[in-house]
């Protein structure tokens, strides 16, 4: 199996003048992308970056940053994509966890908050313009290794990239993947979406999330064009205009983006002959049936692929477009190269339709493990089970119908998704409880059509204290990443308790469910 980056480099040789990437109106051909990636690779090698060394990118998505990611892979070091804009503490945590010696940032990035708090040996600053000024290197400590050799071979099982999950600083985990994992994602997804060689794919997710990384890279692997926008436009009609203007043929998004698109005026949606859009691929959370129905009405010629996946196994299932009207609440069947199973809490196989069980996954897309967390890896990846060498337990509950189609039933634990970000209620509760006025707090998910779920905090105040819900939300906003900040604050005189006196999250959830009846 070829190294991941070589699939991209071959297009620079055969079609160097073809447009490869468009990022916020910044454009680059395959030839330019290859030159920029090679320049980054040479800077890293000459600076002493060694094979298997973790090289971290901390920057907004741009043509240069995409080239830098490819350049890292060229050096046979390990690409690590740190969450950009999530604060110094999270960056320090991720740099420390992977023992990074090299950090790539934009030319203007202020790194004062992290200096002296990591083991970094060098900082590489890259430009952000069409001229792609030569990267500059700041050496912070003597290099501990010798330059790597470009001719060294790679084993498919070796770690080539690390993607972080979207939890808090403490709970975010580094998902380590191999070259085989990365190539298998592309080969599997293209097997059911079609080859991307003549496609123009639009994506709104940043490179530093695995979903954005693959949405950006998959068209490049096949010789297509990858288009990335930093954010949804304020007016949904502008999204439709952009799709038409850029000749977008495939839209890879989470349901939030589709909810925004559906707010556009009905007369803004083009006729069949006025748009090149061939399909919409949605993942990250369940695509609501109401969204599907309206999309089918407004874009009847566009195929809709509803998918399910997780960082630990980038894609797991997809629902074929011909089934979307008949099974709108299903996430389909396993994608090519993946095998799925439902298991009881005891880990035994469920083979009867209609029963709920934890989804377990096997195949080439399953991660190598959590970086630096072997015990945690062992808890969710079980060897020699169900006739497979390795089986990943997802923590998600599903049902399967008699035809083998899967239906999401919820999380095994209390973690829930807001957009594509994982919200751990305990992370929010811990911060709320730092407020002087708060005695107790429980956070639960509340369904939200636009983003899936939002956190709702149920709070008991200390005697003699008063505080507003807005004040508590502000308290959280100053201490948490945005997706962890509660959208709703409810005040209780007392929280429900279990028989042993502990506050009961399940009872609060039950009260919430009854209140919606």
UniProtKB/TrEMBL annotation:
The lineage of its organism: Bacteria, Pseudomonadati, Pseudomonadota, Betaproteobacteria, Burkholderiales. This is AMP-dependent synthetase. One of its GO terms (molecular function) is ligase activity, forming carbon-sulfur bonds. It comes from Burkholderia ubonensis. Signal peptide: none annotated. Residues 428-502 form the AMP-binding enzyme C-terminal domain. Residues 10-371 form the AMP-dependent synthetase/ligase domain. It comes from the Bacteria. InterPro entries: AMP-bd_C, AMP-bd_C_sf, AMP-dep_synth/lig_dom, ANL_N_sf, ATP-dep_AMP-bd_enzyme. It holds the Pfam family AMP-binding_C.
């Amino acid at each position: 199996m070829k190294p991941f980056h070589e699939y991209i480099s071959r297009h620079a040789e055969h079609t160097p003048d073809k447009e490869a990437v468009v990022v916020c109106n910044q454009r680059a051909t395959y030839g330019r992308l290859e030159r920029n990636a090679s320049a980054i690779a040479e800077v890293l090698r000459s600076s002493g970056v060694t094979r298997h060394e973790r090289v971290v990118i901390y920057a907004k998505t741009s043509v240069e940053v995409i080239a830098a990611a490819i350049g890292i892979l060229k050096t046979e070091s390990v690409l690590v994509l740190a969450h950009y804009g999530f604060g110094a503490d999270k960056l320090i945590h991720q740099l420390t966890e992977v023992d990074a010696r090299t950090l790539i940032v934009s030319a203007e990035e202020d790194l004062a908050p992290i200096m002296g708090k990591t083991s970094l040996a060098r900082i590489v600053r890259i430009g952000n313009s069409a001229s792609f000024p030569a990267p500059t290197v700041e050496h912070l400590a003597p290099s501990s290794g010798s330059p790597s050799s470009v001719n060294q071979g790679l084993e498919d099982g070796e770690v080539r990239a690390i993607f972080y999950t979207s939890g808090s600083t403490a709970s975010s985990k580094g998902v380590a993947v191999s070259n085989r994992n990365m190539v298998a994602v592309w080969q599997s997804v293209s097997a059911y979406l079609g080859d991307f060689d003549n496609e123009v794919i639009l994506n709104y997710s940043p490179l530093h999330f695995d979903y954005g990384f693959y949405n950006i890279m998959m068209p490049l692997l096949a010789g297509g064009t990858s288009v990335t926008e930093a954010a949804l436009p304020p007016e949904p009609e502008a999204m439709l205009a952009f799709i038409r203007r850029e000749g977008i043929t495939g839209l890879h998004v989470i349901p939030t983006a589709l909810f925004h698109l559906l707010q556009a005026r009905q007369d803004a949606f083009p006729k069949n002959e006025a748009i090149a859009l061939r399909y919409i691929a949605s993942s990250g959370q369940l695509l609501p049936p109401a969204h599907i129905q309206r999309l089918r009405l407004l874009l009847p010629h566009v195929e809709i692929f509803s998918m399910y996946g997780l960082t630990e196994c980038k894609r797991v299932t997809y629902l074929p477009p011909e089934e979307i009207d008949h099974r709108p609440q299903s996430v389909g069947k396993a994608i090519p190269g993946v095998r799925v199973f439902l298991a009881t809490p005891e880990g035994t196989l469920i083979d009867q339709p209609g029963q709920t069980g934890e989804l377990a996954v096997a195949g080439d897309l399953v991660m190598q493990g959590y970086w630096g967390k072997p015990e945690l890896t062992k808890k969710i990846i079980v060897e020699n089970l169900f006739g497979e060498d390795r089986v990943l337990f997802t923590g998600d509950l599903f049902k399967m119908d008699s035809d083998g189609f899967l239906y999401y039933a919820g999380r095994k634990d209390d973690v829930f998704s807001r957009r594509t970000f994982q919200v751990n209620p305990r992370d929010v509760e811990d911060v709320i409880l730092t407020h002087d006025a708060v005695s107790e707090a429980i956070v639960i998910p509340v369904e939200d059509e636009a983003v899936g779920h939002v956190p709702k905090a149920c709070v008991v105040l200390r005697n003699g204290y008063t505080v507003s819900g807005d004040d508590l939300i502000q308290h959280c906003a100053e201490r948490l990443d945005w997706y962890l900040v509660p959208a709703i604050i409810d005040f209780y005189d007392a929280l429900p308790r279990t028989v042993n006196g502990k506050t009961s999250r399940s009872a609060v959830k039950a009260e919430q469910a009854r209140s919606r009846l």
